[in-house]
Amino acid sequence: MEATESLPRMTRERLSTLVLSPNPPPYAIIDVRDDDHLGGHIHTSMHVPSRSIDAQLPYLLRTLVDKEIVVFHCALSQQRGPTAALRYLRERAREVEKRDGRKAKVEEVRSAEGVVRGTEGGEDWEGWGDEKKAEGRVKGQEVYVLDGGFVKWQEKYGRDERLTDSFAPDIWVDYY
Q1: Which of 74, 76, 85, 145 is catalytic?
Q2: Does the annotation count 74 as an active-site position?
Q3: Tag placement on the chain: N or C end, fewer CB within 10 Å?
């Protein structure tokens, strides 16, 4: 059984590069903060409060099906973000099992940053740009947790309007 500590982390620098890239791979950022969502959010992120994550899993599976990279985060990415990412991965594995009629699991897939958790039909896929797709196969999805969560993100990128929407700096002065 996977644990939240085993989920790979994406740095705020790598995520900012992804958000600013003119031709990024298909990606999604899932913000699972609850009432602490006020004060700003990462540009392009989708707000799915952690208290509703279980009810939203079917929606997330449909919405994120074509995404190569999915990044979950909460305020600090210590509890809610990693838990949501793990729930998503487990539900995705169950859906693959139902669809394909075979036992699916959260399996290891290699990336440029090391081991990434995802589900896929048995092949290992390297990096973002690997064109190793063969007919009838689906590329594995890289699922990350934002290292340091929104608290660390806003310290560096809160005032950057290209990267952060609706930023209210007074909320973050003494947040943690």
Answers
A1: 74
A2: yes
A3: N
